[in-house]
Amino acid sequence: MSRVGKYPVKVPDGVNVTLADGLISVKGKLGEMSFALSEDLVETKVEDGAISVAPRKDDKRCRVMWGTTRARIQNMVTGVSAGFTRTLEINGVGYRAQAQGKTLSLALGYSHDINYPIPEDLDIKTPQPNQIHISGRDKQRVGQVASEIRAMRPPEPYKGKGVKYAEETILRKEGKKK
Question: Is domain 84-165 classified as CATH 3.40.50.2000?
Fold first, then answer.
C-alpha cells in the first residue's frame, strides 16, 4: 500500500484540472502544466475538488507508479498555484552574485566571472550579493538549476567557502596542527 498514493490531491481555488486521453493538464495563476499518465498502470479520477489515483493491478510496477503519479500531480497543482522556491547562500571573501537581465553573474574566486543564462521558465533574484532566490512552477527545474549553480563552487569543509543551499549544514573539519 502506497503511503503517498492513497491520499487524494486537493485542488485549491483558482486551479483548473482537465483529464483527457491519458493527459492531465493543470492551469493556475502561474501558468499551465501537463503530464502524460500511464493509463495501463494507474487510474486517475477528478471529483469533488480532489484528484485520486489508484493502481489498476496489484503488481509491483503499478504500485510504484501509483505513488509517483500522485506526487507528480501534487507538484503540478502546487506549482501552478503557489510555485516552488530554492534559496542559495554564497560564503567567501569576494564571492558574490548579481542578476542582470537574463544572466546571473557569479564571482566565485576564479580568475573570471561566470555568466549563467537564466532559463525562460524560472525567475532568479539576488536580494543581497550573497543570496540567490530561484523560483518557478516546475519543482524539478528549480532543483536542477539550483544544483547546477551550487556545482560551480561547492562548499568546502575547512572554511565553508562556496555556494550552498540555505538549509544545508556544512560539516567542518579541523585544519592542520603545528
Answer: no
The predicted pLDDT at position 178 comes to 80
Q: How far apart are CA 164 and CA 41, in angstroms?
A: 39
Q: Which three three-digit cell numbers place residue 110? A: 576564479
DSSP structure class, residue 119? P
- Over the chain (178 residues), the average pLDDT of each successive run of 10 is 83 92 92 90 90 90 90 94 96 94 94 95 95 96 96 94 94 89
Count of residues making up the chain: 178
Q: Which 3 state secondary structure label does DSSP give 142?
A: helix
CATH placement of domain 9-81: 3.90.930.12
- Calpha distance 13→4 (Å, rounded): 23
